[in-house]
Amino acid sequence: MPSWDDVVRIGCALPGVEESTSYRTPALKVRGKCLVRLRTEAEGGLMIVCPLEEKEALLASGDPAFYTTPHYDGYGSILVDLTKIRLDQLTELIEDAWRGKAPKTLVRRHDENSAL
Length: 116
Hints:
By secondary structure, the chain is of the alpha+beta class. It has a single domain, classed as Aspartate Aminotransferase, domain 1 (Alpha-Beta Complex). It is built from 4 helices and 6 strands. A hairpin with a 2-residue loop joins strand 2 and strand 3 (33-38). The protein starts with a helix and ends with a helix.
């Protein structure tokens, strides 16, 4: 079962990502843009930004790791139950969030360095 420490380790391995806060809760940001936020609200979970189409597909998959609340209706983010998600799924979602928020030059540089 992944923890917030795993989220930080995964996220901070990506260029430009740093620990921060959002709505007074722990978060990861790239160049000031939120990627991931640990929710402390009653429903808990981890908020990860993603395109609406991806959110809809994750919810339609029936995987119990993914859910939403009315507050997030129409918003490009998915809520994740850390007790139910696999580490590989979490890693992919965090990297996808980073790719969507990081400056394109940073993503391109990362991809070029990874290809070496």
